[in-house]
Design a protein that fits this description.
Elements lengths: L6 H9 L12 H15 L8 E5 L5 H8 L3 E6 L2 H14 L4 E5 L2 H7 L4 E7 L8 H11 E12 L3 H14 L16 H10 L2 E12 L4 E5 L5 E8 L4
Helix pairs in contact: 2-3, 5-6, 6-8
């Protein structure tokens, strides 16, 4: 299934692939954000020994962190160059419990239903045409009682000001054109996608960026970046 792929989005990340693991490059925000995202996951579940799927893994920053926690990780993405970077970095770092594959979540769901204890899908939903289909695929891929974690960006004037005008143009934290405002997802919309996919929502938290300390932290304010924790029913 190729219908849930935006070629323009793929091209953006292909062009930046070589810089993925440089903590001072265009991907510095992902490196800075990664401990916050991992801490959020850690607060819900110990991934050691579990089968974990990282959807939209890119160059593998979160995938490697999950693997270093002892998880058996599958990272999937539709960008070839970042996946090659991810494979080389894992090899160089001696991280063996990761498998990277170039495929969509929908295709993997058809191939391997009910295979994963945990799914992560971070900063990816705002880059696909049909984010709701990703959540449906997650439900199929999860084992009964499995947990899925999502992060994305709210859609409102404040998020445009902070995530696009501020991050891309003023502070230059991200390359210009990284995000498209119309693809941002309101929490109410992500909630609706989750319910339609039969995923129970267990938590919603915001992520705040402090331009003075240049750090991220969890907050109750979901007006810009936010995380959502969900769970598949144990009887399904």
């Amino acid at each position: 299934m190729q219908s849930n792929v935006d070629p323009a989005e793929i091209a953006k990340f292909e062009a930046l692939a070589s810089r993925w693991w440089d903590p001072e490059s265009d991907f510095k925000p992902l490196h800075d954000l990664n401990p916050v995202r991992m801490g959020y996951i850690d607060s819900y579940i110990n991934v050691a020994g579990l089968k974990v799927l990282d959807i939209g893994c890119g160059g593998g920053i979160l995938s490697e962190t999950l693997a270093r926690r002892g998880a058996n990780v599958t990272g999937i993405d539709m960008t070839d160059a970042p996946l090659q970077v991810a494979k080389l970095h894992a090899l160089d770092a001696g991280v063996e419990n990761i498998e990277y594959r170039q495929m969509t979540a929908e295709d993997l769901a058809a191939e391997a239903p009910a295979s994963f204890d945990v799914i992560t899908c971070m900063e990816m939903l705002e880059h696909v045409p049909k984010p709701g289909d990703i959540l449906k695929a997650c439900h199929t891929l999860l084992k009964p009682g499995g947990k899925a974690f999502f992060s994305t960006i709210n859609r409102n004037p404040k998020s445009w000001l902070f995530a696009i005008a501020g991050a891309e143009y003023v502070l230059q934290l991200l390359p210009k054109g990284t995000h498209s405002y119309e693809k941002f997802i309101k929490p109410s919309e992500l909630t609706r996608y989750a319910r339609r996919a039969e995923l129970s929502i267990t938590n919603l938290r915001g992520i705040n960026y402090n331009p003075i300390t240049k750090g991220f932290k969890l907050t109750d304010d979901v007006s810009v970046n936010y995380l959502m924790a969900t769970e598949k029913d144990k009887q399904q």
